[in-house]
Amino acid sequence: MLIGAEKITKSYSEKVLLNESSFYLSEKNKVGVIGINGSGKSTLLRMMAFQESPDCGNVINHASARIAYLPQNPVVDENLTVIEYVFKGASLKERELQEYEAKTILIKLGIAEFDKPLLNLSGGQKKRVAMAAVLAMPFEVLILDEPTNHLDNNMILWLENYLINYAGAVIMVTHDRYFLNRVVSKIVEIEQGTLYSYDGNYSKYLELKELRRQRELGTQRKRKSLLRQELEWISRGARARATKSKSRIERFEELMAQNMFATESRLSLSSISTRLGKKTIEINNISKSFDNKCFINDFDYIISRNDRIGIVGENGCGKTTLLNIISGRLAPDRGFVVFGETVKLGYFSQECDEMDLSARVIDYIKSFGEYIETVDGNLSASQMLERFLFPPHLQWNIIGNLSGGERRRLFLLSIVMGAPNILFLDEPTNDLDIETLMVMEDYLEHFNGAVIVVSHDRYFLDKVVDCIFEFQNDGKIRRYVGGYSDYIKAMALEASAKNSDITTSVKKTQPVTVEFSVPKKLRFTFKEQREYEEIDGEIADIENRLAEIEQEIISQASNYEKLQELMERKSELERQLDEKMERWVYLNELAEKIVNKSN
Hints:
Elements: E1 3-12, E2 15-25, E3 30-34, H1 41-48, E4 56-61, E5 67-70, H2 82-86, H3 92-108, H4 123-136, E6 141-145, H5 153-164, E7 169-173, H6 177-183, E8 186-191, E9 194-199, H7 202-234, H8 246-257, E10 281-290, E11 293-303, E12 308-312, H9 319-326, E13 334-339, E14 345-348, H10 361-366, E15 371-374, E16 377-380, H11 381-387, H12 392-395, H13 404-417, E17 422-426, H14 434-445, E18 450-454, H15 458-464, E19 467-471, E20 477-481, H16 484-499, H17 526-555, H18 560-598
Parallel strand pairs: 3-7, 3-8, 5-6, 6-7, 12-18, 12-19, 14-17, 17-18
Antiparallel strand pairs: 1-2, 1-4, 8-9, 10-11, 10-13, 15-16, 19-20
Helix pairs in contact: 3-4, 7-8, 17-18
C-alpha cells in the first residue's frame, strides 16, 4: 500500500463532500475517479496529494512514496522558461539524467520551444508544460486532475499508451470514457459523500454499478414491504396500545427514520429549440491567416438542418477560429458567411468568458429569461436550475464560488435557455462530469437542428456526430463520413493504401468523402441473400430475449448469483445484437447499391 485515506470527512459550508470515506492506493494501481461536478473529485485528489487536509480522518503515505500532482488548473511561475519549470527543484544530476526524457515528453505534448518563457504560452500550453514536469521525473505515484483537457487526439493517444506502460501507481480524474476503458483497472465513484469502488475499467464499472442498483432496489422493495407490515400492525387501532410490543414500535420508528437509498440527483435536459427554416448557414469560400500562416484555405460548405459535424485537428490548427468565423464573431480574410432568417445560434464556448463571476446563479439565468417553454410545459428559471442540479440553496451562490465543472454546467443551461436551433460546441466536454455528458449526448440525439462540435473526446464524437471535418496542414478541411472511430479506420485504410503504392489521385481543391462500410461488389452471394431475408426476424428475436432477461433481472434483484448469471447472458445477447446490427447495415447498404445499379 502506498497511500491510505482512512475515514476522511470533508465539508464546504453546508455541503458534505466526503463522509467517513476510506480509500487505499496500492502499487501499480491505476484508478479513475468519477462523480458529478461538485461531488468532491478534485478535493479527494488534493487530499491524496497532501495539498489539503480532511476535516476528520487521516491520509497517510505508508511507503513514503514520491508523489507527483497535476492540478486541474496549474499555477505556474511565468518568469521561468519551459525547461526551467520542468526541472524546478531538481538537482543538477537529476536534470542531466532526465533531460532527454523531458524534452521527448514536451515534444509529444506539442511544446518544442524549450527556452520560451511561460508568460508567452496559452493556458492549454501551460497545463501541458506542467504535465511534462510531472511525467519527466521518477515518481511512485501520479495524481492527475483532468489530464486530457487541452490535448488533441494524437496527444491523448500518446498519453494513453504512456500511462498503460507506466510502472508506478496512477489516480486520476477524467471524463474521457475511452481513456478510462483502456488505462484504469479500478473506478472509484463519489456519490453523495460516499466512495464506491469497482474493480475493472469503465465498461466493467457500468456493469457492476447496474448490479449494485438492482440489489439496492431489491433491498428497498423489501424495506417497503416490511414497512407496510409494520404500519398495518401498528395501526390496528387504539385498542390495548399499551400492550403493543415496545420493540416493534421502536423498529417501526427506526424504519421510518432510515434513509437507506437517498434519491440520486439526475440532470434533466428537455429538447427545446425554435423552428429552423430551409435556409441555415452558407459558408462561401472563406480563408483566414495569422502572421502569414494560412489556417483556413478556401472553405465552402452549406450547413444542413440536421447536420452532426465533428471538427478535429492538432491544437492551434484553427478549429475555434472556424467556429468564430461561421458564428460571425470573427471576419474572414476572404469569402463570406450568410445566415438564414430563422437561425438562432447557441455557442457553447471553450472558456465561458461571458459569465460574470460576481453574479448570483439565479440572477445569471434570469438574465436569459424568467420562464422558458419546454416539452414539459413552462418552467421558471429556478425550476430549470434544479433540473441542472442546482438546488435552491445553491441558486443564491456567487458564480465565482462554483467549481469549474459547475460553471460549465451553468453555462450550458444558459445556452439551452435561449432555445437555439443550431448549436456550436467548442470543447464541450472539458470539466463536465460523465453523467452530464451522457445527458448532453441524449439531448443532442433528439435536438431538432444542426450541431457542429469541436472536441478531443473520442467517445463523445462517436456518440454525437455522423461526419468528421479534419484540418490539414495547408488549411484545407477534409470530410469523412461517420464518427471518430470510422474516421480513424478510414485514415488507417489510406495509410495502408499509400504503403502498398495503391493510391488514387485526389482533387485537393474539393472535400473528400471516404466511404468504408459499403463493399465494392454489387451483388449478393447465395448465403448473403438468405441472410438478408432472415436478419430482421433474427434481430427481433434477440430483442425479445433481451426484454425477457431485463424483466427477470428486476424480479431476481436480491439473488446475487442469479443476477450475475443473468447479466452475463444479457451481455452475450447484446454482443450478438451488435453483430447482427452491423450485418444489417452492411446487407441493406449493399441491397440499395444493387437496386441503384439496376435502375
